[in-house]
Write a structure and sequence with these properties.
12 strands, about 300 residues, globular, 12 helices, binds NADP nicotinamide-adenine-dinucleotide phosphate, 8-stranded parallel beta barrel, TIM Barrel, two-stranded antiparallel sheet
Length: about 300
């Protein structure tokens, strides 16, 4: 199935939905065959963008993907790899760290990119994101290393994650390359970006908004928000669809072009991800769900 795609570099386009591998190490089956099956199931639906981070799976998730890519000739050429760097947690190869912290130094970013390339058995990262804003970031140093990585071809495009507008501006002002994406938490359980300026800034800057935990990590559907569940259930029934797909369609309906990053490990759910693309929401539908999520009418 053909989907709209977002061009983020001359040679890289991001698919309308992305598939995230934060939870992949928690799947009892991390075999190359199973990971290949997950990726193929995404590809069959036009979902070609895979979201990773150095730190996922205690610095092991990239290798789980790499093992699958190594045994599936040509698969790497059919996907875009997004990965992140900058969080140092005292696990895996950073077990010696005394505290979880952020490192956006040139040395750390370069070492992290080399480790990511090795782990994923690839020669390039399609989109590299700085995972979290770092209070100790030297913007000139971080900006320069991101420019250099892009110039080297090891990284095709660069962006950020969990950055506020002023964090983006600080780094962007110290770079030649554009920051093409900001991956932030957006869902019916994380509404702030619609009003706090995050999405407005992203749109104005011409960046791609990527939404992490679009189902709030599953909590959205777990029953803790009865009014929201009731609204989702009623509208899903009326439209002949599932609540999860409707919650994702609600993000897709926003004019910023939000790319939800889906995290399910369940094969049947992966196979149904693009159901969200089929659902049409008119503005009243959108506000019914927004209002239910807010807990009150808009003024
Ligand atoms: N940039 C950042 O700081 C950041 C932070 C967090 C996440 N992320 C990215 O965002 C991706 C998605 O995050 P997420 O996993 O929290 O996303 P999510 O899609 O909101 O949640 C997925 C979780 O919800 C569960 N779930 C329950 N009911 C479901 C249903 N009907 N349909 C689908 N899933 C259901 C899944 O369980 P099953 O697996 O059992 O189906 C899974 O544990 C991550 O993989 C990562 O790539 C980025």
């Amino acid at each position: 199935m053909d989907m709209d795609r977002f061009q983020i570099a001359d040679d890289v386009a991001i698919s309308r939905l992305a598939y995230g591998m934060w939870r992949i190490a928690a799947d009892p089956d991390t075999s190359p065959a199973h990971v290949q099956a997950k990726v193929e199931t995404c590809l069959a639906q036009g979902i070609t963008t895979i979201d990773q981070a150095d730190i996922y799976g205690q610095y092991g998730a990239e290798e789980i993907l790499g093992n699958a890519l190594a045994t599936a000739p040509g698969l790497r050429e059919r996907i875009e790899i997004v990965t992140k760097c900058g969080i140092v947690a005292p696990v895996g190869r950073h077990a010696g760290a005394r505290v979880t912290h952020y490192d956006t130094s040139a040395a750390h970013i370069l070492a992290s990119v080399e480790a990511s390339l090795r782990a994923m058995r690839t020669d390039r990262i399609d989109l590299l994101l700085i995972h979290r804003p770092n209070p100790l970031m030297d913007p000139a140093e971080t900006g320069r290393v991101l420019d250099d990585l892009r110039a080297s071809g090891k990284v095709r495009a660069v962006g950020v994650s969990n950055f506020r507008p002023f964090d983006v501006e600080l780094l962007a002002d110290n770079m030649h390359s554009p920051l093409v994406a900001n991956q932030i938490e957006i869902s019916l359980a994380a509404l702030e970006p619609f009003t706090n300026g995050d999405l407005a800034f992203i749109q104005r800057a011409g960046m791609l908004p990527m939404a992490w935990s679009p189902l709030a990590g599953g909590a959205l559907l777990a029953g803790g928000r009865p009014a929201l569940i009731d609204a989702l259930r009623a509208m899903a029934e009326a439209k002949g669809t599932e609540m999860a797909a409707l919650a994702v369609a609600w993000l897709l309906a926003h004019p910023a072009g939000i790319v939800p990053v889906m995290g399910t490990n369940t094969m049947e759910r992966i196979a149904a991800l693009n159901e969200a693309l089929r659902i049409q929401l008119d503005p009243e539908d959108w506000f019914i769900l927004y209002t239910a999520a807010l807990g009150h009418d808009v003024p």
